[in-house]
Each structure stands twice: as structure tokens, then as C-alpha cells.
Amino acid sequence: MSRVRRNRFFVNIKKNIKKTQNSALTDYYTIKYNVMNIQLTKTIKIHEYLAGLGIQPVSIRGENYWYRAPFREDHHPSLSVNVVKNLWFDLGLGAGGDLVSLVQKIHNCDVSCALHHMDKVSLLPAPVVSSFDRKASSIEIRKVKPLQNPALIKYLNVRGIDHKLASKYLEDVYYSVNDRYYFAVGFRNNSKGYELRNQYWKGSLAPKDITSYENGSADCCVFEGWPDFLSYKQCIELRPSDYIILNSVVMAPRAIEPLKAYKNIFYWGQNDQPGQEVLETLQSAGITLVDCRFEYSKFKDLNEKYSKH
Question: pTM higher than 0.70 for the full model?
């Protein structure tokens, strides 16, 4: 072997060793990050996390909150959350655990993916409701007005969304949580619940549901959230179609039946693992979609491409 070839050989070996060391170091810090975050999740109340998803208890019996399981068909509430022990148990599955295991169950994913999902949810105090008295909720809408709040219009401007377009779909929602007053942009769903957002916070006001707009089209565009929907309307749309906004990745199963009525379906989801999971959920149900995410492959989502951050 010549001296030049020998030198190249050893340079390549050193590169491979360094790559292996970096990979091992990355794995170490990934494991350490996950362990640290799992410890932090133990301080998060399961019922508050579910409230952040817009999932509320159907009834309360002592220290147990009873829900319809969000990861399967559940006509009679069988998911129990003990708010003192901060543990869940599903009578239908005969299984339970902590918050991380519940998020894994909801999204059918591993621990790292579950932590990623949890990082995206804003926590809300869980409303105190029963099957007889839904007025006991600690989250109350005080008033809903046409979009005009200057602070909310400024927030939309930062997101790259024209407020005249937004006013057709969004409202000013003034609400209270435990006697503290707030306001946010409100996006109404099919069940008259709201997705709430402002510059500092995002959450949901139950009931949680998808939002659909029908224009008699054979085509349908699917979005995860309203910012992507409005960015599409403002920057891309050439002709009107029908639209389904999921309002959360966990709502994907609810869109399956409506989507079966369409000839052409265009998916404008997020460029991340949850966005891919939504696509796979719909595809596994026999829905054929055109994946449009290549249009903004360098961005997290469609709105980020057109926002003014």
C-alpha cells in the first residue's frame, strides 16, 4: 500500500471512529434527556394534561375522574384517573399506568415520541364536571365577539395571517379560569367547542372536535390546525374546496368517515412524527391522500413558512 493510500486509509478510520463516538454521545444525551423529562412529567397531573387536549371527565366520583377512553371506541366511560395518585386505569383494557404510558397509548408510540407530544400541549386546570351538572366547569366563556381585539390582531399579523381573512373564521373569546380573566383567538369546532390561542398560550375548550367547511366540492384539504388552514387560504388556494381541520392529532380518527366521501384528498399536515402518524392513521383506514408537505419541507408546518417570525 502506498504512503498516500495508507494515509487516506487511516484518515477514514479516524473519521469512522469519531462518527461512532458522536453517535454514542448522542445516544447518551438522548437517554439522559428522556430520563430527566420523565422525572418532570411526574409533576404533571394527568387530568390537567387531558384538559389541555380538550378531553374532560364525564363524571367525578370521589378522587376518580371518569373519561371515555380517547384511544378507542368507548361509549360508556371506562377510563379512570385517580387525581391523588396521579394514575390511570382503563377497565376495558385491564391496563393502566402513569401519564407517559397514557400518552404512549393515545398516540401508539414510544417514550421519546410521547415526551415530544407532551411538550406541545398547554396545561389547563381540569374543569370540575359531572354527568348531571356541566355548569360546574372552572373554565367559563364570558363573551364571544367578532375579531377586533388589537392584541389578537397583532398576534395574527406575526403569524402572517391577514385579519380580514381571519375574521371570517376566528372570534375574540373572553373567558375565565378560576375567576381569572383572559382573552384569546377562538376557532369553533363542529361541536361548538373552541380552539383558543394568543401570543402566550394555546389550549382548547371542550367539547373537542374537528372543524369542517363544506362547499359542495369533490376535493378536500386536511389541516392539523387553523393557522395552517388560513395560511393555505391566503397564500396557496387557487379555487375553493372542502376543508377539514383536525384541531389536534388525536382527532384524526374522527375525520375518517367524512373523508370517505371525497374523490381527491390533500394532506397539509405537520412535518414531524405526529404529522406522519396522522397520515398513516388515515391511510390505514383506506383513505388515499396526496401528501402536500413537500411544499414546505424545510419548515415545521405551512404557517411557519409564511409567518413573520
Answer: no
